[in-house]
């Protein structure tokens, strides 16, 4: 609890431009980004430690910290990773549409990010499994196949499309048939 209050105070302090520190104009953007990275790392540790409790407030603060970082430090090398983490965290928190926004922004804004293909696949996964929107899921999966045909995620997207409109009984029958053939 004490650590949580410290983190809240630190976020508030940073947001208000706080106290005796150097003028933010004098602090380089890289230094500001590094301070935020350290704060986010502490917040991630707190959320990880409280995983069993599923502390909604800590997770929400972390989600906001990821988004704020991405907005303020768009050119920082950690930004795409934080957008990816924000997408996964938002999805875990049941904020599926927000998760899709983060993952789409990551995909569209960071063409060299190593998890870009996975982010594109996760958009389809969220549409399918969280929002039960098969049409949008299929579109997202088809984009993964179109843009990344040689990737692992294209194979996963193709398999997902094949199962997308099947009933549970049809899926079970398909898996049984596959197991018999192996």
Give structural notes.
The model is unreliable at 1-22 (pLDDT under 50). It is elongated, with a radius of gyration of 20 Å. The chain has helices spanning 2-16, 29-49, 56-72, 79-92, 96-109, 116-129, 134-147, 152-164, 168-181. Helix 1 runs antiparallel to helix 2, helix 4 runs antiparallel to helix 5 (96-109) and helix 7 (134-147) runs antiparallel to helix 8 (152-164). It folds into 2 domains: 28-114, Alpha Horseshoe (Serine Threonine Protein Phosphatase 5, Tetratricopeptide repeat); 116-182, no CATH class. The chain is built from 9 helices and no strands. The chain is mainly alpha-helical and 182 residues long.
The appropriate CATH architecture of the largest domain is Alpha Horseshoe
Number of domains: 2
Proportion of residues in extended strands? under 5%
Task: Supply the number of helical segments.
Answer: 9
CATH class of the largest domain: Mainly Alpha
Radius of gyration: 20 Å
Note poorly predicted spans: 1-22
> What is the fold-level CATH name, i.e. the topology of the largest domain?
Serine Threonine Protein Phosphatase 5, Tetratricopeptide repeat
Report a brief summary of the structure.
The chain is mostly helical. Helix content is 75%, strand content 0%. It has two domains: 28-114, Alpha Horseshoe (Serine Threonine Protein Phosphatase 5, Tetratricopeptide repeat); 116-182, no CATH class.
